[in-house]
From TrEMBL:
Bilayer-spanning residue ranges: none
Protein name: Lysine N-acyltransferase MbtK
Protein role: Acyltransferase required for the direct transfer of medium- to long-chain fatty acyl moieties from a carrier protein (MbtL) on to the epsilon-amino group of lysine residue in the mycobactin core.
PROSITE patterns per UniProt: GNAT
SMART domains given in the database record: AlcB
Residue span of region Disordered: 1-44
Pathway listed: Siderophore biosynthesis; mycobactin biosynthesis
PANTHER family: LYSINE N-ACYLTRANSFERASE C17G9.06C-RELATED
Length: 232
């Protein structure tokens, strides 16, 4: 149960710290990541995330691209070392710290798929799409079969605090509900201290269902229901 996000402070209405790690060259990364490989031979518990395709949003074309460890670890580790991110993800340190976190999912049973979020061809965020009903989180709330969870962080500083996280959260939740017909709810558990992130989930159509004590954090259980998706 990784820390849910951080990027806006978690991934949504996004952080305030203006560190400027070296930016990625857009054209090359667009080609490499959209064409990147996915892990073969894993159980498919999430209805082929790699095949979900792009989504149009108010901030541009967005796509989840499953992580390829050798290709992506340096970039993701750089984001994890941003103090605004590490405060919630607690994965700062050498690249191998991030690599261990990614490898646990890539070599696991398929219940969690780590992805880069690519906006208009440029990787700018990190996401984990996971089966919440098969996750330790299910011990702490009344999980339903096929509940799908999200963790995220906004990596590029310039994408934080501008509502981009909110727009992407709504788009990814819609992708989950469109591509996973068996899933009735999208859930998340951001740290309650991460108020910009909680606000972003609310702006993206999630509701605050409960406050939950999880190992290591006091979380806001956020839920977006299929039955209410067009009303919120």
């Amino acid at each position: 149960m990784p820390p849910t996000d951080s990027g806006t402070s978690s991934g949504a209405e996004d952080d305030t710290l203006d560190m400027r790690p070296s930016e990625e060259p857009p054209a090359r990364l667009a080609e490499e990541h959209l064409a990147g490989p996915t892990a073969p031979g894993r159980p498919d518990l999430l209805d082929q995330v790699a095949q979900w395709g792009p989504a149009g949003t108010v901030v541009g074309a967005f796509q989840l691209v499953p992580v390829h460890l050798e290709r992506d670890v340096e970039l993701i580790a750089r984001w994890m070392n941003d103090p605004a991110v590490s405060a919630f993800w607690e994965l700062s340190g050498p690249d191998e710290t991030t690599a261990r976190h990614l490898r646990a999912q890539l070599d696991g049973d398929g219940r969690s798929v780590p992805c880069l979020g690519v906006l208009d061809g440029v990787p700018m965020s990190y996401w984990e799409v996971y089966r919440a009903d098969l996750d330790p989180l299910a011990r702490y709330y009344p999980a339903r079969p096929h509940d799908t969870g999200l963790h995220l962080l906004i990596g590029r500083v310039r994408d934080r605090g501008r509502g981009i996280g909110t727009a992407l959260l709504r788009a990814v939740a819609d992708l989950v509900l469109d591509r996973r017909p068996s899933c009735g709810r999208v859930v998340a558990e951001p740290d309650l201290r991460n108020t910009p992130c909680v606000a972003a989930f609310l702006g993206a159509g999630f509701r605050l269902s409960a406050e939950v004590r999880l190992p290591g954090k006091h979380a806001a259980l956020m839920i977006r229901d299929r039955t209410l998706r067009h009303l919120l």
